[in-house]
Amino acid sequence: MRLLVIEDEHRIARAIKDGLEQERFAVDVEFDGESGYGAASAEDYDLIILDVMMPGMNGYEVCQKLRADGNHTPIIMLTAKDQTADIVKGLNTGADDYLAKPFSFEVLLARVRALLRRPHQTLGEELAVGDLTLNPTTKQVTRAGKPIMLSSKEYALLEYLMRNQGRILSKNNIISHVWDFDADILPNTVEVFINYLRSKVDKPFKKPLVHTVRGFGYKIEAA
């Protein structure tokens, strides 16, 4: 899982990053609202930890802009304000949870895990790339109307590619979302599973959908 921390207090940001990385999360950090908004818009994160009180663009504004852009990544807001009105404001701008400072890392970790277990708003929508479809609810995959049987890891890899169709995904991106940076992963694991996927999704059909972008990674698209 890949997380983004947007926090202007460097000591707190480093402590959160170190703690989450010890729990096997991949963590990026931005130290101001503008940079955080840019990172959250440009990259694919599983969850955002967002401080409210920042110079320039504050956390409320970052959250509001992301939601207006259609970005539904779960957001936990952090703030020194614990008044009811502030909590309501944070939730009304689109935050999923709210944690008042000071807090224990164990509580933050529990909130993170609880949100990651919660289905995203769009997870139930059927995904399609050309004549390839994937139904996240039934876990059924078809191409040209024909069912395709996949292992759990092949399915997770295909779903991640399809949710990012047209985007080039690096090996590290794929590992962080499909394997959660498992320490036992071999360097060629991604290539092996891409080949497994191609043998089922592409080879029986005329038009390949899974593409290698040499030196950068992989993408799926019908064009």
Give an overview in words:
Helices cover 40% and strands 20% of the residues. The protein has 223 residues and is of the alpha/beta class. The chain folds into two domains: 116 residues, Rossmann fold; 94 residues, Winged helix-like DNA-binding domain superfamily/Winged helix DNA-binding domain (Arc Repressor Mutant, subunit A). The strands form three sheets. Strands 2-1-3-4-5 form a five-stranded parallel beta sheet, sandwiched between helices. A four-stranded antiparallel beta sheet has the order 6-7-8-9, covered by helices on one side. Helix 2 packs parallel to helix 3. The chain is elongated.
Features:
single chain; 223 residues; alpha/beta; Rossmann fold; Arc Repressor Mutant, subunit A; 2 domains; five-stranded parallel β-sheet; four-stranded antiparallel β-sheet; 8 helices; 11 strands
Would you spell out the secondary-structure blueprint of this structure?
Layout: E1 2-6, H1 10-22, E2 26-30, H2 33-42, E3 47-51, H3 59-68, E4 75-79, H4 84-92, E5 97-100, H5 105-117, E6 127-129, E7 132-135, E8 140-143, E9 146-147, H6 152-163, H7 171-179, H8 189-201, E10 210-213, E11 217-220
Parallel strand pairs: 1-2, 1-3, 3-4, 4-5
Antiparallel strand pairs: 6-7, 7-8, 8-9, 10-11
Helix pairs in contact: 2-3, 6-7, 6-8
